[in-house]
Amino acid sequence: MLTLSDQRRRYKPKIPALLQDPRSVAFEKIKTLDVDHEVASLFPLTSKTSALKGCEGSCTLQMPKIGVVFSGGPAPGGHNVVAGIFDTLGAGNLIGFLGGPDAIVSGSYKELKKAEIDHYRNQGGFDLLGSGRTKIETPEQFQAVLNVVKKLKLDGLVIVGGDDSNTNAALLAEYFLKEKALTCVIGVPKTIDGDIQNPYVPISFGFDTAAKIYSEMIGNLAHDTVSSLKYFHFIKLMGRSASHLTLECALKTHPNITLISEEKKPFQTQIKELADWVESRAKTPYGIVLVPEGLLEATLDVAGALKDSHGNINLSGISTETFLMESLQKELTARNFKGKFEPLAHFYGYEGRCGHPSNFDANYSYALGITSALLVLHRQTALMAYVGQLDRPPSEWTFGGAPLTPLLKMQTRNGVLKPVIDKALVDLNGKPYKALQKNRAVWMKHSAYENPGPLQFAGDPQITDSIPLILQC
Amino acid sequence: MLTLSDQRRRYKPKIPALLQDPRSVAFEKIKTLDVDHEVASLFPLTSKTSALKGCEGSCTLQMPKIGVVFSGGPAPGGHNVVAGIFDTLGAGNLIGFLGGPDAIVSGSYKELKKAEIDHYRNQGGFDLLGSGRTKIETPEQFQAVLNVVKKLKLDGLVIVGGDDSNTNAALLAEYFLKEKALTCVIGVPKTIDGDIQNPYVPISFGFDTAAKIYSEMIGNLAHDTVSSLKYFHFIKLMGRSASHLTLECALKTHPNITLISEEKKPFQTQIKELADWVESRAKTPYGIVLVPEGLLEATLDVAGALKDSHGNINLSGISTETFLMESLQKELTARNFKGKFEPLAHFYGYEGRCGHPSNFDANYSYALGITSALLVLHRQTALMAYVGQLDRPPSEWTFGGAPLTPLLKMQTRNGVLKPVIDKALVDLNGKPYKALQKNRAVWMKHSAYENPGPLQFAGDPQITDSIPLILQC
Questions:
Q1: Which residue of B has its CA nearest to A346?
Q2: Beta strand pairing status for B398-403 and B343-348?
Q3: Are A71 and A133 in contact (CB under 8 A)?
Q4: Cα(A469)–Cα(B5) distance, rounded to whole angstroms?
Q5: In a 3-state reduction of DSSP, which class is residue A421?
Q6: N or C, fewer C-beta in 10 Å, chain A?
Q7: Cα(A63)–Cα(A80) distance, rounded to whole angstroms?
Q8: pLDDT value of residue A303
Q9: What is Dmax (Cα atoms) for chain A?
Q10: What ranges in A121-259 are assigned the alpha helix state H?
């Protein structure tokens, strides 16, 4: 019996022609962003790293030995990053660290072999290697990692992770150079939240699949509410800092209300607007509200609102969607609202992190894997692998390395000034947000829901190969 | 831009050859179940109705005029029932009642036209007509329905609904005959819960799609937990009376623990077994637990357990999955358990009621629609339309009408003895349950999860045309 996983194992990711032969690639220097001067003083050896773009060339260097590690929450496409590295290096040159960054400290790894790689091609999850959230911070940890990469004679360490993990990649790259270790460090931009974006990186891998999975569920709920005609669905979506997933899902499904953390709308204003809307729907007492996970953290006056209603409850103990529903119910009661208001809460998060990667994410993450291997082959370090022009067909994608140090800003974390990669938030002057703005009033009033349906892997390419709408904007 | 909904509109449901030409069908009488004698006394005019099976024949009768109504919660395939009726009757002969059974009392309807039907082909939801949960019970309601069907000169009334709606269909059929009205009444077995099953009806439509949607999410969570290695996911699934959906999803995804309401396991035993399991996973502190929505209602000693911990809280106010998690946490604390236990709660319900119907549900519900129209064409009443041999290819499916009265049993509801159609529960001696039993011990210990992935509509028929596993057993 053929399963979808079997079928996906046979899928050949689409990539630019250049990436199909690692021996035919060279890198050229391109315009590089400036480095913050405080950051530069902390990264004397890597802050002058150039941005690189892949181009035609040739390379006869020996294939390097690479170690790869997953860091943080899973994202669809992680296994294809590993497959891309493996296919570039050939057998015998790739090890995988087991269980996240802890493993590059302790040296827990396995050699990756073809049969195992083949089993995980185009499969969701991070289960080939596991993952973890340990930060490499102490001198002892750095020393331990150095010992591990030296002992394993690694030419490269590829860290597949989010903003924190890429900050760690920058620190390790600088440290290795300082210690005269020969291991290059390359970061790969992973996060379903989509909050790694910079002039080189249009979006992180995993975002497309997660948004499609959530949008399937949202579309189904929207379809249900116009069938049942009685429920107000409050749907929280993952994204603690940035609302990209909520924005993307809104553009896909056309909910009545889309809350965006980055708007920093005062909480009471939000509740009043929601109450106005519920009142306006007395004859159509149903609707869809999208709520980004980080809404309450981003809302200036919410601490006050929480104290009023719950005493001194810790924000992290509050379920955003439930708190919103309860606050709205209170407001409606205060207004003496007599209509129907039957709210239901949903949260989609973990469901989107390990689904079968969409064609877009399968292609994109595979291209990122090859790119990271090529950067190590060319002895480049302190870079984030990137694939550009993602809004065009894969044959037209560009690829290369974006220096990590220009992405770092000095920020205070837990009272200590540190270099960190800022999370990219929704730009209220950007085209995706403006696309939402343009439609918001109509969607609020009418039930203009779209039901994009489940992620498809066969059939018309317009459906199977679609790309994130925020990239299309 | 082609959407999945567009693509699905073009899908031609696969049906038995006989159903492709309504003029070539006759019905033959087949073995009929006995009617309870108390029921028979309440249904003097319909209790001798024969079971019918479609066969080759010919029919020159004039096409009837039919009204169709959706009743209760939506289920994927509802629109194809309507399309099947429409395609059989031809234009001008089908009206749809708007907003559920209320509409057959008030006479709220619209004539259904080809363009609208075409728009809704193979689409999820009940939004073409809306739905509702009103029961037709009072003499005034019966009289009002009679007036409506007479005024509209309906030859047939097709009620698409669950157990209660089909009970209503039986009552209306008897009443119409008593009042010498010419309107035939046909029920169509709908419910995602799968709790309409009888010797003629293998499963209700909608079940397959809902189970596939939930299984996609469960598979993703399972994949997440073997990647993150730290969460215990407690996943509640719709099914207040019967655990068919939970059983089907378990057979598809192989969770560690599958709770089945029908086992009526004492609550404290359940909690102790769960605690033993969590303790046994100290080195692998993660897992997947499926919880049927009706678990607490079915558990004999749960009222006591609730009183112990919560005082006199009403069962309907309790979130089953949360209560289970909390009770388990208490038990672990009592045992002085020092390992990791990070539980997360999920509920999948509404998400499964309005998804794009699977090929199986699209085919099956379309065949049910045609069958119900043919039964009216042949002036048959008091029947549930059925399609049989669903475990074979559609070309081999049988179809016909199952008398409603033998399905009725006298039961006390709200203190009144009434004829009702019993919900079909999971049979603890049946093959599907035994298939679970056979694997339970292994699944509990190991992470043998399957990730079936999102519902597919194009590609290999082994994937797109799969049928429920409980039918395959």
A1: B347
A2: unpaired
A3: yes
A4: 18
A5: strand
A6: N
A7: 19
A8: 54
A9: 77
A10: 139-151, 163-178, 207-228, 244-253
Contact A220 B2 (CB under 8 A): no
What is the distance in angstroms between the CA of the first residue and the CA of the last residue of chain A?
Answer: 41
Indicate if the alpha-carbon torsion angle A392, A395, A398, A400 is positive or negative: positive
Of all residues in chain A, the one with the smallest CA distance to B447 is: A127
Nearest to B163 by CA among B201, B120, B118, B107: B201
pTM for the structure as a whole: 0.96
Measure A231 CA to nearest chain B CA, in Å.
10
Tell me the residue ranges of DSSP E strands in A251-371: 257-258, 287-292, 343-348
Give the one of B7, B229, B454 whose C-beta lies nearest to A455's C-beta: B454
- What pLDDT, on the 0 to 100 scale, is given for residue A465? 97
Beta carbons of B462 and A233 less than 8 Å apart: no
DSSP classification of residue A205: B
- Indicate if A193 belongs to the active site: yes
Average pLDDT over residues A188-213: 98
Paired tokens of B62:
């004039």
- Sequence-separated (6 or more) residues with CB below 8 Å from residue A455: A209, A212, A213, A216, A355, A356, A358, B453, B454
State the count of interchain CB pairs (< 8 A) between A and B. Answer: 175
| Among B368, B408, B270, residue whose Cα is nearest residue B327 | B270
Per-residue model confidence (pLDDT) at position B302:
62
C-beta atoms of B8 and A223 within 8 A = no
pLDDT per position as a tens digit, B279-304: 999 999 999 999 999 999 877 566 55
Q: What is the pLDDT of residue B310?
A: 43
Q: Which of the residues A155, A193, A195, A361 is marked catalytic?
A: A193
Q: In this predicted model, what pLDDT tens digit does every residue of A304-321 receive, in sequence order? A: 555 544 444 455 557 899
Total Cβ atoms within 10 A of residue A26: 15
Mean pLDDT of chain B: 95
- The three state secondary structure string of A426-463 is CCCCCHHHHHHHHHHHHHHHCCCCCCCCCCCCCCCHHH
pLDDT of residue A414: 85
What length is written for chain B? 473
Pairing status of strand A232-237 against strand A184-189: unpaired
Integer Cα distance of B274 and B326 in angstroms: 12
Centre a 10 Å sphere on the Cβ of residue B348 and count the other Cβ atoms it contains: 24
Going by pLDDT thresholds of 50, 70 and 90, the confidence category of residue B373 is very high
- Does the distance separating the beta carbons of A451 and B5 come in below 8 Å? yes
Buried/exposed B305-343: b ≥16 CB within 10 Å, e otherwise: bbeeeeeeeeeeebebbebbbbbbbebbeeeeeeebbeb
Suggest the residue from A220, A237, A451 to mutate for an interface test with chain B (most B CBs closer than 10 A): A220
**Do A2 and B451 lie within an 8 Å CB cutoff?**
no
Residues whose CB is less than 8 angstroms from the CB of residue A50 and which lie 6 or more positions away in sequence, other chains included: A29, A30, A32, A403
Convert the pLDDT of each residue in A384-436 to its tens digit: 999 999 999 999 999 999 999 999 999 998 899 999 999 999 999 999 999 99
How far, in Å, CA of B367 to CA of B387, rounded?
Answer: 7
SS3 sequence of B242-283 = CCHHHHHHHHHHCCCEECCHHHCCCHHHHHHHHHHHHHHCCC
Q: How many CA atoms lie within 13 A of B406 on its CB side?
A: 18
Q: What are phi and psi of A205, to 5 degrees?
A: -75, 150
**Nearest chain B CA: its distance from A226 CA (Å):** 6
* Residue listed under structure tokens 């331990």: A144
Active site residues of B: 193
**For the residues A249-260, what does the mean pLDDT come to?**
98
Are residues A426 and A243 in contact, defined by beta-carbon separation less than 8 angstroms? yes
Check residue A311 and give its pLDDT: 44
